[in-house]
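In this section we walk through a basic example: taking a raw amino acid sequence and producing a predicted 3D structure, encoded as discrete structure tokens. The instruction is simple. Fold the sequence below.
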Amino acid sequence: MRKVFLVFVVSLAFVSSVHAQPASPVRQPPPPRAIFTPQPVYRTEWAKQRLTGKGVVLVNIDKHTGNVTGARMLTSTGNQQLDGAALQAYSQWRFDPRTVAVSQLKIPIEFANRPKPQAAARSLPQPIILFIFLAIAGVAIGFLRRRRA
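The resulting token sequence is shown next.
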């Protein structure tokens, strides 16, 4: 009886230790490779109004064609115009069908009012460059005249 009890306790301890093992992490399939990705339009009037926002778009992807079959805002940017621009752009996306393992994909979007890039600084204004060119040409002509004489 003692042996049976001991075997029972040992087997119970073994079974509970097997179930107590941490589960291996569930591996997510890699995201599909996008092959056509038009970006959302950020209109100049929105920049003047300083409209900004962050959101997440959930797109539905046809696994056979790689076409986006639907898009909706999972998290709104806080502005209907910005949401509309994001949905219009992401609904046109296309993916390589060979890489599509999931039928839905979350895509973050951020509309930020970025400062305009500064124009490249020119070292010399245009009239000065023209003056230097004419001066060099005049010196060259004078040099050639002296050589002929």
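Looking at the output, two observations stand out. Helices lie at 2-19, 44-48, 80-90, 126-148. Residues 56 and 108 are 4 Å apart (CA to CA). In the next section we compare this with other chains.
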